[in-house]
Amino acid sequence: MIRVEKVSLKHGSTPILHDISLDIPKGGITALIGPNGAGKSSLLSLIARLQPLQTGKISIEGYPVDTTPNRDLAKIIAILRQDSIVTSRLRVRELVGFGRFPHGRGRLTEEDQRIIDQSLQQFDLTDLAGRFIETLSGGQRQRALVAMAFAQGTDYLLLDEPLNNLDMYFARELMRSLRKIADGKGKTVVIVLHDINQAGVYADRIVAMKSGRIIADGPPSELLTPETLHAIFGFGMRVETIDGIPIVVHLR
Amino acid sequence: MNTAARQKPSPIGLAAGFVLAVLVMLSLFVGVIDMPFRRVLSDAEALELLLISRLPRTLAALLTGSGLAIGGLIMQTLARNSYVEPSTAGTAQSAELGVLLVTLLWPSANLFIKSIVATTTALVGTSVFLMTAHRLPPTQPFLVPLFGIVYGGVIGAAVTFVAWQADLLQYLSVWTNGDFSGVLRGRYELLWAAAAMLVVAWMIADRLTIMAMGRDASIGLGIDYSRMLQLGLVIVSVISALSTVIVGMIPFVGLVVPNIVSRLMGDNLRGTLPVVAMSGAILVLGCDILGRLIRYPYEIPVGTVMGCVGGVVFLWLLFRRPAHA
Amino acid sequence: MPDRRLLCLGAAAIVCIAAYMTIGLGGNIGFVLSLRATKLAALLQVSLSIALSTVIFQTVTNNRILTPSIMGLDALYLFGQMLLVFLLGGLGYSALDPQLKFGGEVMLLMGLAIGLLLPMLRRRTDMGLMLLAGVIFGVLFRSLQSLLARLVDPNDFAVAQSASFANFNDVRTDVLIFATILTAVAAVIAWRARHLLDIVALGADSATGLGVAWARTVAGLLLLVSSLVAVSTALVGPIAFFGLLVVAIAERVVDTRRHSMLLPAAAFTAVIILVGGQTLFQHGLGNSSTLGVVIEFAGGLAFLILLFLGSRR
Q1: With an 8 Å Cβ cutoff, are C311 and B315 in contact?
Q2: I need a labelling partner for C82 at 20 to 30 A (CA). Which of B19, B248, C17, C99 fits?
Q3: What is the C-alpha separation between C138 and C144, in angstroms, rounded?
């Protein structure tokens, strides 16, 4: 379980997060939604110890993120940041292979190779495995980065807007893959999403943030109501239920 | 499956090893007949000469070449920019400043002490560069080398100024232009510390590759980013300072070699590091041999030859091959 | 309508010139004045040529932080000079008339600059590549120059060192007449091309769309830049960061990239720094030979700060 207790964050004098407390139990997909600048990415990078904690506590499986050795945490939690730029001339297979680094410190076993193959296959990268990253399209590159995070094989997976640059097909594939590992392998996924319907269809729980605070939290069927959505995004939208799933019509 | 295939030495690596072996032989051979007083020597004495002068010179070239190439590679990894190397990041200039200050303040200091001081100032100078470089926006990659060049130029101007005021410009040219002609047994052995740095670099090759992907990715994969950064800095500073103090600055090696190897083999350091080290040695040794032959029996310093050869080779590569080959 | 900021710069430049000519006059006033006038003429030419060449070069390459000297043009000039010595032989060369030699050197630099830079500018405009190539060019030409120097005379180690930094105190006056004509002509051409330069600054595609013959224009501008670089390098030696500093300051003062403003502003700024600095060092600090090193140091430092501040915005 990820436990966030009374976490606040400031950049200089600008407050980013206000006194956030949040428990994310093991298993299932939790979607973080909210307008730009709500603090979603900051919260995610605090959980993944990419930024130092200022106030409050965060622990994963009982390990406090600020004092647990980095390499131990890397076996529990993987993060994919948005706008990750890889400028190295690495082949796709090498990049995905580095996801296994926390486990063997660079030495790849047969098991590692199997996991890498599986990740490549999962994101339809097998044919691209020998290509250099820089020769890929934006969407292919994004898939390679997601595959690397997958290959890390951690119980917790944090993804910051992973659907960027992906077309409809691969966006759906990614969300289905996440669903699959959440259901089949009991993995815990925390994902920042901008497409509210992706959250509605695939997430078990939605946490809505605005101006550095959590303003709504619950399963999609409860959270996706016109009133709550208006409170989050500042405009009214229709919510229709199709096959028991709430679909938000937000285009008009 | 393809684990076995990957552990096999690459054809590029084998070719580099072969060329290097030929050059080493050539260097010893050219060295011996190069000696102006060769006629007065019998065979036994020629051997002695070989051990005193030609072998140390060859070894120094090998160590400096591979060291500078790896130093450049690590510098590029740490700065996440393929256009920097120790001489364009203020490292070599800071080392010069250090060795100049020792010479001024403590004229009787030996080579070892000079090297230590030079390494320390190089470490400080490079840290300042790197701290600043990391705060420059990654969207404008050309700012980093520009910053480094200007920064190195500023330190260089300070060095020149101090040397000028103290009437040490003559000394300065010893450090600013690399030259192996003064290398003898007993005067180059500190360079073996650079070899030790190569071993360290090899041990952390995977971590360096990951660090090239950035801080977030490194932390995400469980790497102690700031400690690795410090280690990388130490490696670069030691190599750069030692070669500056013992043979003088040699341009281009750290820039040319890693970039060419990256184009040919990619950036997975586990595979490319040995090739980078060997190619650096080839380049420096080759240029040294060339410098001995061009104006025989006079010698052209390796720094000058490298400036020409390295420059031409790099420009040729730069404009002949599209970046996304 | 002359801009107020431009007028201020101009006034400051004139004050510097006046101070240079008048402070500490003594002894044979006529002699001292004529001596100072000669040196002032050289300093003014250096200021003008560095300011104009940097502005034009930045416009052509569409990059605010490139300068002719970062792209190795002054090193190229010194290399050309050495090449002439090498080809013509030391003795025959030194017997030639200095003005004639200078003319030959300028022509050679123009030829080399066009031959080397034009294909590069036409092929692509990737800044990283340009910068990298520029750095390489600079080191390459410096090395080639010292290589040739050693081939000409292997024992003379001083040759390679002599021309490594600028010296404003020891101006070469033997080529002054030719340099004056060259600078004047180049300045007139640059001023007349000010509106064309505004268009060129938009980049190859837009400029072509607006009816500019791109390749021919760029080639012409590069010729102009190389002749200006030849002037300043011949007179005082290579200066790395001065042009960068001058244009960066000028652009911040007049707050525009329009060439009708920027060209004179850069020229005034260069005069203020160079002539003012020389005055200060000659009379205030009593050690004028170090101005070159100080300008490099301060220029580089100021530039680092500007670069850092600018990029963080």
Answers
A1: no
A2: B248
A3: 10
Please give the radius of gyration of chain B, using alpha carbons only, rounded to the nearest integer.
Answer: 20
Give the whole-angstrom CA distance, residue B67 versus residue B177.
17
Whether A99 sits inside 8 A of B212 (CB atoms) is no
Which chain B residue's Cα is nearest to C298?
B154
pLDDT of residue C125: 56
Angstrom distance (rounded) from CA C145 to CA C138: 11
Residue B1: per-residue pLDDT: 34
What pLDDT is recorded for position C299?
73
CA distances from A103 to A59, A75, B120, B221 (A): 21, 7, 35, 9
DSSP C202-220: T-HHHHHHTT--HHHHHHH
Residue B104 C-alpha from the chain's centroid: 26
pLDDT for res B71: 92
For the record, the structure tokens of C244 come out as 């960068």
Task: A171-179: list long-range contacts, CB under 8 Å, 24+ apart.
Answer: A171/A195, A171/A198, A173/A123, A173/A124, A174/A123, A174/A143, A174/A146, A175/A201, A175/A202, A176/A202, A177/A122, A177/A123, A177/A150, A178/A29, A178/A202, A179/A29
Write down how long chain B is: 325
C21-29 contact pairs (CB < 8 A, 24+): C23/C279, C23/C283, C24/C282, C24/C283
Q: What is the pLDDT of residue B323?
A: 46
B–C CB contacts, 8 A cutoff, strictly below? 126
Q: Is A237 exposed, middle or buried (0-12, 13-18, 19+ CB in 10 A)?
A: middle
Measure CA of the first residue to CA of the last residue in chain C; give whole Å.
Answer: 32
- B129 Cβ under 8 Å from any chain C Cβ: no
User: Which of B143, B101, B111 has its CA nearest to residue B245?
Assistant: B111
From chain B, the residues in CB contact with A98 under 8 A are 206, 209-210, 213, 221
Q: Which residue of chain C is at minimal alpha-carbon distance from B146?
A: C131
Q: Concatenated DSSP letters for A41-86?
A: HHHHHHHTTSS---EEEEEETTEETTTS-HHHHTTTEEEE-TT---
B1–A113 CB contact, under 8 Å: yes
Alpha carbons B220 and A51: distance in angstroms, whole number? 11
Which subunits sit against B, judged by 3+ Cβ pairs under 8 A? A, C
Average pLDDT over residues B92-99: 87
Interface predicted TM-score (ipTM): 0.72
Chain-chain contact of B224 with A71 (C-beta, under 8 angstroms): yes
Q: Which amino acid is at A98?
A: F
> Under DSSP, is residue B42 helix (H, G, I), strand (E, B) or coil?
coil
Tell me how far apart the alpha carbons of residues B228 and B134 are, in angstroms, rounded to a whole number: 15
- Does C touch A (3+ CB pairs < 8 Å)? no
- Tell me which residue of B81, B263, B141 sits closest to C128, measured CA to CA: B141
Q: Spell out which residues of chain B touch residue C119, defining contact as CB-CB under 8 Å.
A: 319
Compute the residue count for chain C. Answer: 313
Q: Give the percent of chain C with pLDDT over 90.
A: 8
Give the Cα separation of B16 and B278 in Å (integer): 6
For tokens 């292997």, the residue is C154
C-alpha distances out from residue C39 to B22, C170, C174, C229, Å: 57, 9, 11, 18
Q: What one-character-per-residue DSSP string does C125-136 give?
A: --HHHHHHHHHH
- Model confidence band, residue C160 (pLDDT cutoffs 50, 70, 90): very low
Structure tokens at B308: 């020409």
Is the CB of B213 less than 8 angstroms away from the CB of A84? Answer: yes
Helix boundaries (H) for B50-110:
55-79, 91-105
> How many CA atoms lie less than 13 Å away from C273 in the CB half-sphere?
28
Of residues B36 and B318, the one with the higher pLDDT is: B318
Q: Distance between the two ends of chain A, CA-based, in angstroms? A: 39
Mean pLDDT value of segment B71-85: 85
Estimate to the nearest angstrom the gap between the alpha carbon of A115 and the chain centroid.
20
